[in-house]
């Protein structure tokens, strides 16, 4: 009998559905991915963390800071360094600037731990997909990147950035991190930090920026090189408006404040601003001094150098020198346009053509470059780089009339496309001018201390960095005569000594030519007092005096004033300024007359501090005691009396007339063939030296300019500002003098005892006793006679 079949086998499970299978594999993949990410992150931390730089030093934040140079009143006059930065403590940064930055860069800065994880994940996946790289950097992350890392956008750099940000958040306060950011970030035009940017773009301290200005600055970090208001005003404006919107959205400003900020007109700093303090030669001189002492570290260590410069005096010196040179330039023949450009007929294309034409002809302070659109003898129409159209007529055409004539040579013809220079006239309107070829210098110092109050080393620092005040060795001409007269006083001469102003002739050797020096104007007055001779700058009187006292004695005497013996050979032309001096030396020399006979050394630097304001160097004003005496006080007083006569009724009479003061002293100077013109003068509290000449010496002017016509007006223009409010101060006569019939004598050289006359009845002093032992100068050696003849002709 058969057994029944079994049906007890277990039932098989149905296969999972496709959706469930996907879910299982997806979960496994996510788990595995998460594990991989965690392992990768852990590995990254393990690998990267030991390599992270230490952030502890940031607690004592010391960025690269430039050398900064200041006038006596704290005005910034120069900055030198790899990065233009003004380190500003957090407490001194205005709230409006902090708010603007936080609104646009990191509104949750004070709430997060340094990392925006959501933004980071978004940026990471975008990078993995090869899509557009994105950033979600917080301010902390930007500090980590800017201080320690490069700006490349890679996952590894981002990992370093995140870990560094975590370290920063642990070791620094939020305020410290924000302070570093506000001082460190690059904002275009070499400006690092918002304080430097405020100066760069608006010419004002950070503490004075408005909401609109703060918004403009806060918009710069995104693209500082291309979106700043100088490089691209349109993009900078769009970014500024976005920042203002963000400030309103985040509650930092009200709707009304936002509306006012949008409407505010911004005034950018103009590099050619005529009101800007121009002290470029001073700043460069200080830079050279600091570099000689501290080396290349000056460009990054944040040294601050304070100078003796007076801002008001410096501005007056700059204006007066430029005005004097430009006045001279107006009297010179017109040399023609600087260049010629082809202008298209299509008006739409002219703007680009003008930009191209002026690219190599930037404005030079108050000398503006323009391209001529139309020209006729009666009217010229020109356009500036900023688009302003100028209409020039009447007196404005006079300096360039030769270039507007119908038959003007092509090289000087003013026509369509000509690049010309124009300047505003005092009475309004524009005039055609030209960039001067002549150079000049002016220096002013306090004769009581040697402190330099103003220094302008040339017409334009951008054109030539050669400092004519300190580096130009030029012949001083008649402005050197007072030092010879000073020597003569010690040999018995007095202001009343009669000297024959008559021609002299020195015989030459066989086959040579006689030496016959002349007065500047070719006229002679015969017997004349020493006072009158200096007033009228008589060359022949000075030659007779120098020959009498001895050239070697005079050469020794002038070293008391700081002049170099080897720059002034011991021969007769020395008395007429045939040696070499710098304007700075002349300032020091005339200071001896101004301060009663003391030698003072000119100085610029009063104090040097480090980045934390620790004083490294300090200059104290000298004490004028007998250890500094250069010449007797009575000598300085009598020389002052003689120089006062020059201003009251001599070659510098225009100074007395213009300034209406009795305490002015000085001497004009004009060298042979008018190669150099000078005026050296002082009031007891201020010495000023003005010089004009060409770098390659040639005659000044068609007929020859003089110190009185060219350099004296510069000195007067400066003193009109420098002496405002300064009381009149006339020196008192010291001991050792006697006044007879209104004239001064040394006690021992009174009437009948000193040199009464010279060259009148005989070619010798009338009192042999007064000149006992004084060598009589011989005619110059033969090898010098040719040079001497040239000097006097």
Description:
By secondary structure, this protein is of the alpha+beta class. Among the domains are: 25-50; 89-269, Penicillin binding protein transpeptidase fold; 342-433, Beta Barrel (OB fold (Dihydrolipoamide Acetyltransferase, E2P)), CATH 2.40.50; 483-580 and 730-793, no CATH class. Helices cover 36% and strands 14% of the residues. It has 23 helices and 23 strands. The strands form 6 sheets. Strands 6, 7, 8, 9, 10 and 11 form a 6-stranded antiparallel β-sheet that branches. A hairpin with a 2-residue loop joins strand 7 (368-376) and strand 8 (379-384). Helix 2 (95-105) packs across helix 9, helix 4 crosses helix 5 (155-171) and helix 15 (481-489) packs across helix 20. The radius of gyration is 38 Å and the shape is elongated. The protein starts with 17 loop residues before the first helix and ends with a helix.
CATH topology of the domain at 89-269: Penicillin binding protein transpeptidase fold
Report the CATH C-level class of the domain at 89-269: Mainly Alpha
Distance between the termini: 163 Å
- The computed structural class is alpha+beta
**What's the rounded overall pLDDT mean?**
87
Question: DSSP helix count?
Answer: 23
Rounded to the nearest angstrom, the radius of gyration is 38 Å
Instruction: Bin the strand percentage.
Output: 5-15%
Give the number of DSSP strands.
23
Keywords:
single chain; 793 residues; alpha+beta; Penicillin binding protein transpeptidase fold; OB fold (Dihydrolipoamide Acetyltransferase, E2P); 5-stranded mixed beta sheet; 23 strands; 14% strand; elongated
